[in-house]
Design a protein that fits this description.
By secondary structure, the chain is α/β, with parallel strands linked by helices. The chain has twelve helices and 21 strands. Helix content is 32%, strand content 24%. Bound molecules: 5'-O-[hydroxy(phenylacetyl)phosphoryl]adenosine.
């Protein structure tokens, strides 16, 4: 049974009527309160009452990260500061951070969405939940905290880092669930092995991981090493943090919290809506957020949507695991490549550790890719001939599966910096335009 059967199991038609009503409300809300949106809606000649069906969402203006930056910090805020109870932010790699203000109702919404995520992962009120996402401006730590609070779990708010202590607390407090980035989960697993702690023997049962792309192979690797089910969370600061979409027991795509978010997939070049099943850029309109609602926010994340009867009984539309981002796509010999595709091919080899970086360089108009991947200790110790053999095997496999030539360099285990939050998987040495 889902956490909130009324919405999670609502018949699709009823759900869509609900979305339509909330969409109109949101458009009216921002039109009255956010000059940036009023101007754009006026220019397009769209009013809330003109929206007759969900397809009409395509008449609304899109919002991009730069709009948030240009209006930093609170230009897109729809409520006075007296109604704001919390402000999160994401630093990103360039420019000003993106702000995420919340009303008390927005925080409640975040808690509800995250409770659904925990519940679907089998987390119960009597469970001890260790939250190793960063607490602070990042939405991960406190976002998960809200969800576990709704369920009334015993929360261990470790935040990220101090990996030895994470493991000791996991043993001492008998944590049943762990929440962190998938790359940090691997760091924890590795450290536990080093400490001689068998995580599989601990009461740890479930993990909820997210905030960065991870392949199905990494999921299996984590499940295997920790003896848990590895579930997923997806979200972004601009839409309120985690809690946008979550994994159910079927582990076959993430259910989007459709009572709170209206999802579209569009062609990233033309912005033309794409039918379900086709891959494109994911766009969200928030339906019930009040402090900083977003109309058609372009996530830059690439995925596809599926509306199907899920084994779990939830009716919410599903998105596939994020395949990559429009901005981390590399074009090698004319082929679009996402780091996550390479990741899953690397993990087809038993000899490698799940630690790699992709180095992208430019020569003329072409991008060149070098894959640096750690190998297991015994393989590394076997010497250069063995290394060369594996490098060739991996490069051949990538060529066979993706039709691109890459250079593979196997490296000593432990050489790649371990992640405590979002891992850096791509080093882009191409000149900036
Ligand atoms: O990462 C929110 C979050 C926290 C989600 C904890 C899940 C768990 P931002 O820092 O704003 O917010 O980064 C958002 O991270 O556009 C995706 O590119 C990526 N991302 C988030 N979740 C996933 C996921 C948080 N499950 C950006 N799979 C998004 C792949 C993800 N990418």
């Amino acid at each position: 049974m889902p956490w909130n059967d009324k919405f999670e199991g609502m018949p699709v038609e009823e759900l869509q009527n609900f979305q339509l009503e909330k969409l109109r409300e949101t458009v009216a809300w921002v039109c009255e309160r956010v000059p940036f949106y009023k101007k754009q809606l006026d220019e397009k000649g769209v009013k809330a009452e003109d929206i007759r069906s969900l397809d009409d969402v395509s008449e609304l203006p899109v919002t991009v990260k730069n709009d948030l930056r240009d209006n930093y910090p609170f230009g897109l805020c729809a409520v006075p500061m007296s109604d704001v109870v919390r402000i999160h932010a994401s630093s990103g790699t360039t420019g000003k951070p993106v702000t995420g203000p919340y009303t008390a109702g927005d925080i409640e919404l975040l808690g509800e969405c995250m409770a659904r995520n925990f519940w679907a992962a089998g987390v119960q009120p009597e469970d001890v939940v260790q939250i190793a996402f960063g607490y602070g401006l990042f939405t991960g730590g406190l976002g998960f905290h809200e969800g576990a609070t709704h369920i009334k779990c015993a929360i261990v708010p470790t935040s990220s880092g101090m990996t030895r202590r994470q493991i000791t607390l996991m043993q001492d407090f008998k944590s049943n669930a762990l929440c962190c980035t998938p790359s940090y989960a691997l760091t924890i697993a590795e450290k536990a092995e080093e400490m001689g702690v068998n995580l599989r023997e601990l009461p740890l049962r479930a993990g909820i991981f997210g905030a960065e792309p991870w392949s199905v192979s990494i999921r299996k690797e984590i499940e295997e090493r920790m003896g848990i089910r590895a579930m997923e969370a997806y979200g972004l600061t601009e839409l309120g943090g985690p809690g946008v979409a979550f994994d159910c027991e079927a582990q076959d795509g993430l259910h989007i919290n459709e009572d709170y978010y209206l999802a579209e997939v569009v062609d990233p070049e033309t912005l033309k809506p794409l039918p379900h099943g086709e891959k494109g850029e994911l766009i969200f309109t928030s339906l019930q957020r009040r402090a900083m609602p977003m109309l058609r926010y372009r996530t830059k994340d690439i995925t596809r949507l599926r509306r199907e009867t899920c084994a779990c009984g939830r009716t919410f539309v599903k998105m596939d695991k994020v395949l990559g981002r429009t901005d981390d796509m590399i074009i090698i010999s004319g082929v679009n490549v996402f780091p996550s595709q390479i990741e899953s091919l690397l993990l087809d080899f038993e000899e490698v550790e799940p630690q790699y970086v992709l180095v992208v360089r430019k020569k003329g108009y072409l991008d060149y890719l070098t894959v640096r991947v750690e190998v297991k200790k015994e393989v590394y110790n076997a010497g250069p001939d063995k290394e060369a053999e594996i490098e060739k095997k991996i490069a051949d496999h990538i060529r066979g599966m993706m039709g691109i030539g890459v250079r593979v360099r196997v490296i000593e285990p432990g050489l790649i910096a371990r992640s405590e939050g979002k891992a850096i998987r791509v080093i882009d040495e191409r000149p900036k335009e």
